[in-house]
């Protein structure tokens, strides 16, 4: 057997199949994949045993009776849960088993509960996942991790023989990974549940380790497209895992920041030049394929950065991103390059908006080139406009322009919120025109349609937008840009609150009273007052409105006239009154905290 053949045999995985389905046949490895791998094995029994399982799904309020039959008698409740996970696709950590009125404990044996053939047990759960596909995906990723780790030196050399190239393709199974991701992550009902299952079974550690190894190979030397596609898949899985990561694991998100930035800066992007690497050793690889994988890597890297900003809520973490001049240049290049799709532009603008919520990032984001590119991108018409079913092509073009302009306007509005970080003076007239154009031409109903149909964006935090409309700067200053930013904030709330999910977020964050009080603090004659009243009518059509509490009325008044919403919500009313009296003649700076 030759060297290449020997290596290929070394990395052969039990999941190799000829059927090409990509997500089946991984049962042989399953016992070693989950956190419960050290639990007692299912003991052999000579007879088949059956249980009647009553399945109770709380979120859907459904009850189903199923028969569970096995030729192996589980020795413990924990082992029974593993078997149920495989049979009914309910994760072990989401199972609550009861026998009669007794909740069954993981550490107890089934003999303790005197279970026998034909008994009924009750299974309470909240979600199901694609268990088999998830374990198969993790098996493929572990195999890829082992391969990249052991072959680092040869991959870095750039000398890839046809035999080694074939071994890379046969070992990485990139197409199978792609099929698994599509099955796991493109199902709207199970996306979060599947991501949570992968996270809880050690998937994040595998993904971050693989990402670190891939970044050690420069793209000038990597001559195999599958390795670049693998990096794209890793970034997508990272952003998916970030959405479900628990608080005590946030340090892992912070630790992976440098790697995500590394992927984002893989290839410098500018309006005139995109340095797409050439795979000279692969004659079948075209430049268009290279550009596609580059665009996808950038897209998912930006998405991962956005998720990191939202999840960590760490000012230093956010400053680390924007203080890197190469990152700002790359953001600018992505917006200036006409060959990228509207989805890429929107993704970049969303990331910039999330970063703009933090006042300490503004001196980095208030970059002349970046703001200029942000305004220009809305003027371009893409050859690949956003498509919605049953929507006229002309409306699709209008939707694309409005979306790009909307997210750009929100970035500028948050930057202009704080007096200490005014936008560049040489762009003032252009910014004013850009904001005015948006407010006069935006079709909120069209954006509502997009929000509802795609469910593509979810606002986990509505506070920054409510804070924007409560900024005293927007009503006390005579600057036209300030007033336009305030109107943009009210318009944004119209767009955001187009779904019940966001309405519930508004209530959970305790912001409903402040929205009810908003029109009271806007002078008659302002267009924004009419929009604020319409917004309140819209909210009232979704839920009954109650008079705000006296406490919140006082806080809203102080927020609108003196201290801003951040302090108004965070501090005691007496402290706020004293603070407003002391600082009534000083410029307002929104996020600078009060001395404790």
Overview of the structural elements:
The protein has 596 residues and is of the alpha+beta class. The chain is 57% helix and 7% strand. The protein has 28 helices and 5 strands. It has helices at 3-10, 77-88, 131-150, 152-157, 162-172, 174-185, 191-200, 203-215, 225-242, 250-255, 257-264, 287-312, 315-322, 325-336, 342-356, 362-365, 368-377, 393-415, 428-441, 444-454, 463-469, 473-476, 480-496, 500-508, 512-517, 527-542, 550-570, 573-582, and strands at 43-57, 62-73, 96-99, 102-103, 120-125. A 5-stranded mixed sheet has the order 2-1-5-3-4, with helices on one face. Helix 11 (257-264) runs antiparallel to helix 12. The termini are far apart.
What general outline do the C-alpha atoms trace?
Answer: globular
Major sheet: order of its strands? Answer: 2-1-5-3-4
Q: If you compute it from the alpha carbons, what radius of gyration comes out, rounded to the nearest whole angstrom?
A: 28 Å
Low-confidence stretches: 13-46, 279-283, 585-596
* Strand percentage: 5-15%
| Most strands sheet | 5 strands, mixed
Secondary-structure-derived class:
alpha+beta
Oligomeric assembly:
single chain
Q: How many DSSP-defined strands? A: 5
Mean pLDDT: 77
Helix content bin = 55-70%
Helical region count?
A: 28
First and last CA, distance = 72 Å
